[in-house]
Amino acid sequence: MVDSKFFSKSKELTLDQVSKLTKITLPKSVDKKKLFNDISGLDTASQDNISFLNNENYINDFKTSKAGACFFKKDFIKIAPKNMIPLISDNPYHSFAIIANAFYPMKDITNIGIHPKAHVESNVKYDETVQIGPGAIISSNVVIGSNCFIGANSVISSGVEIGNNTVIGSNCNIAYSIIGSNVRIHNGAKIGQDGFGFAQNNNSNIKIPQLGRVLINDNVEIGSNCTVDRGTGPDTIIGEGTKLDNLVQIGHNAVLGKNCIMVAQSGVSGSTKIGNNVIIGGQVGIAGHLKIGNNVKIAAKSGVMKDIKDGMIIGGVPSVPIKDWHRQTIILKKLIGKKNDK
């Protein structure tokens, strides 16, 4: 159950409101004025709750669920409980996310203003809707858009620009960066530091000046303790709508397209270009100077060492098409089995 001490609901929703928000068609026989007061998992839901089924591992919970309404695909209509209102959706998880955000919208910034223990240089540009937490340092010539929040002990270095409605958590360091609107940067993220660039000559490693920036487009989310290096001259770019999990590393000059997802502990080496709508699993390593196409999916713990064409699904070390990887795994298992039988 959601703990009201930490999370505040906005309001109850009628079935008609749920239908309009998610753009789904309701059964004709239902009461569109029926009220729902919360979301819940299948196993804990009551008649006043909305739930969802998006994974067949939860079929048994679905069959016995007491949820008043549930998002699921039409394939499961025959096994839905009789008292459950079916909310048929092609993407149940997405529909549920819309309703979850309606019940629990992001907290409004109510305590606007600058904390007396924050340090803000006199030539910083911001308006009265901005909130800056204790211990934060905002250096010269920074521009902060409306309705922004900067958490405790974060450091925003000179010249950084931040768009509207952006939230920067506590203990973040941001430098040499242009950040769009509706961006969310979680606690401990480090953005705009030197990229890892050295020129080797015999027994010496000479530092390459990192003269680029980090450009973060609108609606990006960056998880806790991520690191995004600035470019050497070209910029490091994170495309609109892209989401980074915690502990993700983006190397200098890397370019991520729109609406990508990178799961925790994955990393992209310098100068690699990643297309749109790419999904990168946990602990994936991508070598430098590669081109990853649009709509690519990379399985967890893969090692990517060459270019990937649009739409491919790959896995393994070194990465290969996912079917080949599964074949390799089966063959290896059989070989090990034969060896053990001798």
Mind explaining what this structure looks like?
The chain is α/β, with parallel strands linked by helices and 342 residues long. The protein has four helices and 38 strands. It folds into two domains: 13-103, Udp-n-acetylmuramoylalanyl-d-glutamate--2,6- Diaminopimelate Ligase, Chain: A, domain 1 (3-Layer(aba) Sandwich); 172-323, 3 Solenoid (UDP N-Acetylglucosamine Acyltransferase, domain 1).
CATH architecture of the largest domain: 3 Solenoid
Largest sheet: 12 strands, mixed
Strand content: 25-35%
Low-confidence stretches: none
For this structure, what is the CATH class of the largest domain? Mainly Beta
Count of beta strands: 38
If you consult CATH, what is the topology of the largest domain?
Answer: UDP N-Acetylglucosamine Acyltransferase, domain 1
Number of helices: 4
Please, what is the CATH homologous superfamily of the largest domain? Hexapeptide repeat proteins
* Rg over alpha carbons: 24 Å
- Shape type: flat
Helix content: 10-25%
Residue-averaged pLDDT: 94
Q: Structural class from helices and strands?
A: alpha/beta
Provide the number of structural domains. 2
Spatial ordering of strands, largest sheet: 7-9-12-15-18-23-26-29-32-35-37-38
Distance between the termini: 55 Å
